[in-house]
Structures are given as structure tokens and as C-alpha cells.
Amino acid sequence: xxxxxxxxxxxxxxxxxxxxxxxxxxxxxxxxxxxxxxxxxxxxxxxxxxxxxxxxxxxxxxxxxxxxxxxxxxxxxxxxxxxxxxxxxxxxxxxxxxxxxxxxxxxxxxxxxxxxxxxxxxxxxxxxxxxxxxxxxxxxxxxxxxxxxxxxxxxxxxxxxxxxxxxxxxxxxxxxxxxxxxxxxxxxxxxxxxxxxxxxxxxxxxxxxxxxxxxxxxxxxxxxxxxxxxxxxxxxxxxxxxxxxxxxxxxxxxxxxxxxxxxxxxxxxxxxxxxxxxxxxxxxxxxxxxxxxxxxxxxxxxxxxxxxxxxxxxxxxxxxxxxxxx
Length: 326
Prior knowledge:
Blueprint: H1 2-15, H2 24-29, H3 33-45, H4 54-84, H5 88-99, H6 110-131, H7 134-157, H8 166-171, H9 176-190, H10 195-217, H11 222-229, H12 235-251, H13 255-260, H14 267-283, H15 294-316
């Protein structure tokens, strides 16, 4: 699961380099990347077999805090040094950026900060998931889906500020849609979709996907359409992520899946390093998605960056001091 999610993350950042309708389909395909990561985290941390206490959470928080601090300082120091030179000011700016979660120079880190927040509240969520039945899950999922997906989507279509609706405004700091993805991971782990339900969700994904492509690619105002139809809390992204998660999760025990499962341990490193590799290829080698036909360059360079990051992560994991933070 994390292998697919990390690949889709690289794909979305390659496809977003150029604003061209011909490659919007890649952005649509890759929209499930971060939600898949979150659902996988929910599967691992909120399952019945997983014992979570405050000691365990403290270790996870400490590990991710170290990852954010080390790599956050790496990216910020590198960028500040390139802009202003090496100085105390550059060091101070980098420290402030890491502490205040300023991701201007390491845009992918917003997910790590958000995941850190989920870890912090996981013991409380685990109390619910350990004692909840299927109806309890469905009730909470329905509420979060309405508040985090349906209401903002309808408001976006009619150009209404969803924050003007009191229940959305009240719950927005809690990011209802991220909590929904987190809960969906453990829900689908406990209550897998039946074959018929999978067929329905795949059909619904195809219908919403076709409509999203039509609105984003064929519409007169594609940027406005992207803001409404293509985001983490759009109905298409939710349905597509559930379908992808359900189908892939059922195949995880297959022989082919077991052969490539070893790549999963490099997923975090690929996520952390891929922006640096993309920039290095563009600045040093002069290679980016605009070098040849976009329809071909985006998937080809995505594969190249993915492989380079996997190799770099493998190398860094050989260094004892970096092994636990990559």
C-alpha cells in the first residue's frame, strides 16, 4: 500500500510542475496518495491487535519529531544557504521554520506535521475504535463524510464559503476529512467490502472520475474546477481512495505482492527525498517534464525519481545515525 502511495506522491509532484490539461489525468490518478498513507496508518495503529498506550505514542511522536527536525533543518538550511549564504541568520531562519511548521522549502512536510497530530490524538481515537461496533463506525464515518466532504463540495460548486456553515466551521480545526480517512483504514481492515460492494465502489469511482476529468479537462475554467473537484476532500478522491485501498488490500497476501513488499520500508525515505531529487534533476542536469512530450515525460520521470530515491534511501539506511530517520 505504501509503495503505491509513495509512487503516487512522486507522480502528483511531477504532474503539478506544469499547468497543462493534457496531464490533468495524472493529477487525478495521483490524488489518492496522501489519503492512502493515512488509511494505512489507521490500519496499523487502530487495529484490534495493536496495543497503543501513551508510552508507545510517545516513542512514535519522538521518532517523527526527530525526522521532521533533522530533514526540516536539512531542507531549510540548504535553501537559506543557497539564497543568503551560510550565516547565523540562515540557521535561525531554518530553526524558526521547523518550529513553526513553515514548509516553504520542504512542501511535502505538511503531511508529516499532520501525521504527528494524528499520533498525538491516537490514544483517544483508539478508545473509540476498540469499543465501537460496525454501526458506531458507520455513524461517525457518515457524519465526517457529510461535514468534511459533501457540504464543502456543494458549497464549492455554488461558490459559497463553507466556513459560513457553523458545524463545518466548528469542526474544521479537527480536519474531519483526515480523521475520516484515518478511521476508514481500520474500518475496512475489520469489515472488508464484499465482492458486490467492491464492484459498486469501482463503478462509482469510474463515474465520478469521468465527471472529474470532464470538469477539469473539458471545462472552460479548469483552475476553478480543480479547486472543487480535485482535492483531498472531494467526493471523487474519497470514493477513489476507498476503491484503491480495498482492491489493493485484498491483494496484499498474493505472491506478487509479497515479492515487492520489501520496497515498503523505503516509502518514507522516498517521500522525504523526492523533492530534492526533482530539483537536482532540473537545476543540475536540466531535466524536467518539459524536456519532451508531457504525456510521456511525467510517468517516465516519475519512475526515474522513484528509483533514484529508493536507491538513495537504501544507501542512507546503511549509515547508522540516519537509519532511524529515513
